[in-house]
Amino acid sequence: MKMSFRWYGETDPISLEYIRQIPNMRSVVSAVYDVKPGEVWPEESLAKLKEQVESNGLLFDIVESVPVPEGIKLGTERAAGLTEVYCENIRRCAKYGIKCITYNFMPVFDWTRTQLDKKAEDGSTSLVMYWEQLKGLDPLKDDIHLPGWDASYSQSEVRELISAYSAIGEEGLWKNLECFLKKIIPVAEECGIRMAIHPDDPPYPVFGIPRIITNENNLDRLLSIVNSEANSLCLCTGSLGCAEFNDIPRMVRKYSAMNRIAFMHIRQVQLMEDGSFEERGHISKCGSLDMYEIVKALVETGFDGYVRPDHGRMIWGESGKPGYGLYDRALGAAYINGLFEACEKGNKHNEK
Ligand code: DNO
């Protein structure tokens, strides 16, 4: 496995010097953040990122994300042109050494949470989603400002988008994803890049907006659209894992054995009885996901893709981008390294 760490570029309060000091750190996961979805990434920006990362003794070979514009997801008349731009971005990334690109196909919003700094008993804070706080909200009537939602849309734009997605429904979204994949995967193959789709977070419809990258059946369907290792998963344990119907170790084993996981996001969540969830410290004891079983599944299937500790809590007085502080993600990386070492040595021992 290739250990990696997300870095938001020069505005990230965490320096590459610090990231480099995390044991076994290899790759920096980043992106060109100052270009809008649907526009071409300037080569100078990619060259600069590569130079910054490499001068700190790390590799820049994985991108998260090249965002997919709404026009592609909605299949508007602009979709074909926007897909061309997307393909150009894949080619440019390849030119600067990128091997894996993460993206998602979530309508309008990326992840959904109701609070980003919920205090736990030990004083740490983390992201949570409490159904209680969402109940009764109607995005078509109420002004909704959930933390972390894209503030670049006005409330009326959000309403229009939600109506447009409700009109196309899940099957419409599938059709547009299929069209997109059939165009981009051959380009990715040609450039030696693996596209890694991030699951919907959480993996079910929110406010009636369709969501499709949610469960095993749908992941099977997605992978069969183009049967190629360039059409792979970013398997995010925390996103898929906040629904009880997803058995994460089983899914990891299955898709890793098929060599269709390009990137693992390792995040811990605690599921609550009513479907709400809290993000927690990475170790198995802290939440609903058995991290040992997850890593064991990876090791036993010979996984050699990228791994990153996903969302950490804020601890030790740190403040910063919710989910993306240094300390708890570094603890997560150390823990994940430990699980890999133990599972790899155990595996060799069993083979003898
Ligand atoms: C949350 C992340 C996601 C992810 C995108 C990928 O912190 O896991 O925002 O980067 O969904 O496109």
Q: Level of helix content? A: 25-40%
| Topology as a string of helices (H) and strands (E) | EHEHEHHEEEHHEHEHHEEEHEH
How many separate helices? 11
Per DSSP E runs of 2 or more residues, the count of β-strands stands at 12
Task: Please give the alpha-carbon distance between the first and last residues.
Answer: 22 Å
| Tally of discrete structural domains | 1
CATH superfamily: Divalent-metal-dependent TIM barrel enzymes
Low-confidence stretches: none
The CATH architecture is Alpha-Beta Barrel
The portion of residues forming beta strands comes to 15-25%
Strand order of the biggest β-sheet:
1-2-3-4-7-8-9-12
Largest sheet: 8 strands, parallel, barrel
* CATH fold group: TIM Barrel
Structural class of the secondary elements? Answer: alpha/beta
Oligomer: single chain
CATH class: Alpha Beta
Calculate Rg over CA atoms: 19 Å
- Output mean pLDDT: 94
What keywords describe this structure?
alpha/beta; 12 strands; 17% strand; 39% helix; 8-stranded parallel barrel; 352 residues; binds D-mannose; TIM Barrel
Summary, kept brief:
The chain has helices at residues 16-20, 43-54, 70-74, 79-95, 131-134, 155-191, 216-225, 237-240, 248-257, 291-300, 327-351; strands spanning 2-6, 27-30, 59-64, 100-104, 115-119, 125-129, 194-198, 231-236, 261-266, 268-271, 277-280, 306-309.
